[in-house]
Hints:
Elements: H1 15-18, H2 23-37, H3 42-81, H4 87-99, H5 104-114, H6 118-127, E1 139-144, H7 147-151, H8 154-165, E2 178-183, E3 195-197, E4 200-202, H9 207-224
Parallel strand pairs: 1-2
Antiparallel strand pairs: 1-3, 3-4
Amino acid sequence: xxxxxxxxxxxxxxxxxxxxxxxxxxxxxxxxxxxxxxxxxxxxxxxxxxxxxxxxxxxxxxxxxxxxxxxxxxxxxxxxxxxxxxxxxxxxxxxxxxxxxxxxxxxxxxxxxxxxxxxxxxxxxxxxxxxxxxxxxxxxxxxxxxxxxxxxxxxxxxxxxxxxxxxxxxxxxxxxxxxxxxxxxxxxxxxxxxxxxxxxxxxxxxxxxxxxxxxxxxxxxxxxx
Length: 225
């Protein structure tokens, strides 16, 4: 005899009533049904299965649109620089200017379009410090690691930032708010040790000052919210 989901305590009557559930709610619903019956009733699993297929098809269509957009953008960059010597670097610059970093799916499409191995593209990306492999944060903190700054204690600044932010250089905080990086020199040796926060150079920074700078960035986030 077929089990009625609504009578089983799951609160499910038909596929239309399931549409209001997100992924976490559906998982919770299935777990409750399994706890109550010792198994997931067939009609419940069938309804959830149909809904999952609908959502997957929608996601496939979205991915298809994204893929076509990525392909079109990459083709435009390649067409613009195709006849230039050293065009790979120029194309990568154009991609980073567009996205703020070089997304993996874009690098893969570029590999196909140019007929260049993906490994070669990543050799270029990782060799040049300018290119980023992760999305940039809303705010950037860059520590100068030039000779003057290094001798004046930029290493201590970097260690303090790593501790305060919980990330290493080249990474972005999980909330995508702060990106930490280093550069060889910013040309402000007389202000050593120096770092750049959102384009503003801060000189003679001490490790004890780091917490205050981060707090200022957090205040900016709250003000913008």
